[in-house]
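Known limitations

Files may contain more than one protein. Parsers should not assume a single record per file. Below, a two-record file is shown to illustrate correct handling: read the sequence, read the token line, then continue until end of file.
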Amino acid sequence: MKKLLLFTAVALLGLTTTNAQVKFGFGFGYAMPSGDIADITDGGFSGNLELGYGITEDIDVSVFLHGDFLTGGNEGQLSYDTVVLGSYMLNGRYYFTKEGFRPYGSLAIGLTDIGQIEAEANNTRLAATSRTSNFSFRPAIGFKYGIFNMNVAYLSAGKVGESGAKQSVGDITINAGLLFTFGGN
């Protein structure tokens, strides 16, 4: 049985390495809060970095690092809320076409670190921080044209807070960047 499994693994590896493609990409964009954190933040910046492998011409898998910085407001007598999301995920992407303009759908799953910084002024409490990690998922749709990569994604990072007052954490991002492919066809 062990020999059969080893033979199958080697055969699959041999089939996939004939079209092996290493992927490296990064992107930047805008993040809009979603869920309960939309009550305390207005929006912010998003960035990502990924290193992946093209299993076939249509399917990629990658390690995906994603960060969002969302900030709030109220300048009269101060009062700011800031939420920082750092995601470490495994991403799968499926391309719907093989050449030229390549639309795709993807799904990433992993962990998101959620950090929150608060402030106030006249009602005092000038800073408080909290941090937690949750299981998260990130579906996205986008396209790749040459090395240009653009996508729209929704990040669901679970809930944070006390058991009676849990708040949902998520955001919608619009990112543009570059996705390089090395090797393969």
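...continuing to the second record:
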Amino acid sequence: MTATFFARPMEPDDLDSLGSWLLDLDDLALFDRSLTVTPGRTAIREMWESELAGGRTPTACWFTVVTNERAPVAVGGLSSVKYAHGDAMLAMFVSKPARGKGLGLHFGSLLLDIAFDRLRLRRLTTFFRSDNERTERLVMHLGFRDEGRMREAWFAKGRAFDAVVVGVLRDEWYANRLALQAKIGCDQRIKLGAVEEHTP
């Protein structure tokens, strides 16, 4: 049976879910190198306010993935969008219970399609902590290539890790997309838009 998820624009109410996911400091330290302590709900709202505000030329677009019952399971998007140069940063966070089931791969594919098909960007960059094997596998499946390391740039667990920088070009994604879609199968799908937009 195919599990259907929905990726809709992120809303301020989603920050409560995100705040509860970030309560695990070890998990937080695996995905964010700027936060050294778990932020409170008010701090999270303040940090994200400008990101969600948009504007005439938004420099970020964020999405929340929800189940059919509207329960959030992941957030992600494109930040630091530079239209003149055609590039942006990719970021994703999948809640712990939803990990290991292929959701990140489906969500990442959707975000790459948005970046290259809709926003007409030329490249995406992301980075991860050198011991984060799950993220490394995910970005390599999505066609990202190793572009370098920031040595000892990520402090966690009382020690310094390298930050691995990876990037993917539009042509690389287009060359990889069909093969990846065939490989990941159709046991899950993510529809762009709110649940109610897809109800018959």
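Parsers that stop after the first record will miss the second one. For reference, the second record is described as follows. The beta strands are 3-9, 61-66, 72-82, 87-94, 123-129, 145-156, 159-169, 188-192.
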